[in-house]
Amino acid sequence: MAPRGNLHFTANLIMITLEYPKVTYQAPLLRRHEDNPILSPGDMPFPCSSVFNCGAVRYKDEVLLLLRVEDMARDNSFYTATSPDGVHFTISQTPIEYPLRATEKRFLENRFDMRITPLDGTFYVTHASWLGGYGSCIGIAQTDEFESFRAVGELSVPSNRNAALFPEKINGRYARLERPQDIDGTGRIWVNYSPDLLYWGQAKPIALPKTPWSAAKAGAGAIPIKTDQGWLCVYHATAKNCATENYYLGVMLLDLENPDQILAAPRQFILQPETAYECMGQVPNVVFTNGAVVMPDGTLNIYYGGADTRVCLAQVALDELVHFCLAQA
């Protein structure tokens, strides 16, 4: 659709004002919030180059986010943000104090993509730690108030990332989704188990259907949500084209007792990069979530990074998303 143009003449200058028609972007089910992006670098109370890929949880009757923030040197820190309505956030002035294991003190170059799981009356956060030539590892920490954090065990062996801890034990064991990373940077979602959050094993792959939009890789997104019909999991997947590698969001239902078993996994994606704030940024054509919160009215708030630069919000009724899965099974 071509823009309309108006010419404005001054003494030595011709100015052209382009007026673009309003475009309604289409996406199955998910509704982008009208205030998107809800957090951008300019909204932060300090200089930064990007804010994106946040963990999310209900905490003290508010939505709490753990924001991944890159400063002007592109060093990463995590900041908390809180909101009574899940849209308008108050951001902390200082980053959280997060423990470093001995391995991280020696080799850490970057730590990123927090996920928050309420479990056993406390909160666990999972993240990826990039150890330079040693690759990406998974770390876990525990907190009660999002001010002090305690490292839980050592890092996983590389390369592994996208860890999403289930919010309850399954058959007496802790469980998490993760993405062991192949040498070419690809990988698929696996479920892994632990008796104590320290030792992990008996991992099994989750056999998602192969689709054109998930041809390159697929990884866990937000923390699994327990429903009567199964564990609802919003995940990300990518596909390469002639110019970029585009990120999409998909959804699936996993068996409550055996989460390596898929009950439903629609072939259709539920969100793709379409808007300017999703297509333009430090990594173009990216929608990526690692945080979702069920609101008191049953709305699922899915917080996602747009182009690895800003935080966006998409919403859908939780029951509607479950029905979508079952209808496509």
Explain how this protein is built:
With 329 residues, the protein is mainly β. The protein has helices at residues 102-107, 276-279, 318-327, and strands at residues 4-9, 14-19, 31-32, 50-59, 62-70, 76-83, 90-91, 110-119, 122-130, 136-143, 150-151, 160-165, 174-180, 190-194, 201-205, 217-220, 225-227, 230-240, 245-254, 262-264, 287-294, 299-306, 310-317. Strands 16, 17, 18, 19 and 20 form a five-stranded antiparallel β-sheet that branches. It has a four-stranded antiparallel β-sheet with strand order 3-23-22-21. A four-stranded antiparallel β-sheet has the order 4-5-6-7, with no helix packed on it. The longest helix is centred in the last third of the chain and has 10 residues, at 318-327. 42% of the residues are buried. Residues 1-25 have low confidence and may be disordered.
Keywords, separated by commas or semicolons:
329 residues; mainly beta; five-stranded antiparallel β-sheet; four-stranded antiparallel β-sheet; 23 strands; 46% strand; disordered N terminus
Parts with pLDDT < 50 across at least 5 consecutive residues? 1-25
Please estimate the helix content.
under 10%
* Main sheet properties: 5 strands, antiparallel
Mean pLDDT over all positions: 92
Rg over C-alpha atoms, rounded to the nearest angstrom: 20 Å
Classification by helices and strands: mainly beta
- List the quaternary state of the chains: single chain
Count every helix, treating DSSP H or I runs of 4 or more residues as helices. Answer: 3
Give the overall shape, derived from the CA principal axes: globular
